[in-house]
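Pipeline run #58 for the internal structure catalog. This entry was flagged by the ingest filter as a single-chain record with no existing model, so it goes straight to prediction. Upstream metadata was stripped on purpose; only the residue string is passed forward. Reviewer on rotation: M.T. Logging verbosity set to normal.
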Amino acid sequence: MATKRLKPQLVVLSSPSGGGKTTISKILAEQNPDFRISVSATTRKPRPKEKDATDYFFISQKEFFQRVENKEFLEFEEVHGHYYGTLKSTVQDLLDRGFSVLFDIDVNGAMSIKKHYPKAILIFIRPPSLTELKKRLRARKTDNEYDIERRLKRLPVEYAKAEFFDYDIVNHELDKTVNEIHNIIRERQQKETHVSN
């Protein structure tokens, strides 16, 4: 008997910078062939080792706002002086091909996705402590001290929005966090697949 294909889900992972959302998204996509990461567009410059159209679509501010005007974004947001947005076409293409879509975006973007897709799963990922978060941000070596402090000042806003998420997870150990999120997605998929049949 053919295995029943699980219903694709939209899964939004949000966390403070350094909280682990990007790493977790990548591991989930690597471990699950039916998961894909929604690649966002951004006006910021690529970090070392980041590739265009793989990590982000790196575009100019002018092009970004043209796309905003053309209503091409599902959501967009200014974060730390740069603009980020999710293109409707990227998400629809993945859904049409039967993939579950992982979003690695900020809390306001998550709220916008939920408005468009009420069944999207919103998962907030917290660092174990402020000390650990600072350590992770410094270990990345992608930001100077001024940028790190600017990111930390945003924490109260991000934590306040966490109460609107479906799940609020503390990322103590990466493997356990990935496993917990994987189980959440699969349980929802099985439930949705059962309901639709």
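catalog note: The first strand starts at residue 10 and ends at 14.
catalog note: Residues 174-196 form the longest helix (23 residues).
status: ready for reviewer M.T.
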